[in-house]
Amino acid sequence: MIFGDLSAYVFIEGQELSEYNVIVSSTPTENRITCWIASEEGKKFGVRWSNAVKQSWGIRAGVSVDGVHCAGQKARPGWVGTKERTYLSNDSVTRDFMFSNIQLTDDDSMLGDQNSKDIGHIVLKVETGECVKKQVVKHGISKNCALHVREGKVHERSKKACAHRVIFGEEVPLQARRSTSHTSFKPDKRPTTVFVFKYTRLDILQAMGIAPSTSKNSSNEEVIDYGDDIEIVDGPYEPSKLPLPPKDIKPRIQHLETKLQRLRAQLASSEERKPSRVKLEREVSRRQQAAVEVLDLTED
After folding, report:
1. Fewer CB within 10 A of the terminal residue: the chain, N end or C end?
2. Is 115 in contact with 68 (CB distance < 8 Å)?
3. What share of the chain is helix, strand, coil (3-state, %, to 5)?
4. Which residues are 93's β-sheet partners?
């Protein structure tokens, strides 16, 4: 998604995910760009954002996944480039973002759980302002500091269109580092830009009419060539002399039966949607009744 000089997208294995139903809304304090993306269970992902033009102000960008806020990224005035966030972190460890199946429950005590209201959303918030450098003495990283995140069940009625959620991978220790300065950020009065990526499975997006249906499987079936050549031989019918059926006869039958079922389903669906024309045909019949010519086909 793009807004002004800023752009952002979610990627899996380095590839940008397709975005559907992009909506832009603006107020005096915020520009919000929202879209849908297709998540994949078990896949790690990241958020990549860019600034295309030099500006006289600094930038701070923060990512949150399912309501869990990650460490922000800052850029000084005049910065042009691309940054990305692929993990949750603290001072000692990191944990990668990963899509996973959501675990549902019918326990009504969890129906109003506020921790689940942001599940299904990946948000990038970009602010403009002033970067202020402060002197800090930091000799290394803290030890034995685990990074715990709540990943409990969700009530089945609270997330009807959400099949996935974000979980976090195994803890990976950070390299020891020595720092003597820290850059703080003071936001200005310019509008904040917020990119919102709503995610769920592709088949759900297709069922909702948000993503186009993929005809990959049906197109592959259409181009399968089974070599259905027919040989016509003159002479009396002698079953004993007919060639044995090929080994792939069962797959061919299954393929044709599946295709027939699909065509029948399409025909039934088409007939259900066909508007009734009984009244119209009756009216036309009445108007044309006077103009009908009766032919006597009986022989003399």
Report:
1. C
2. no
3. 20, 35, 45
4. 173
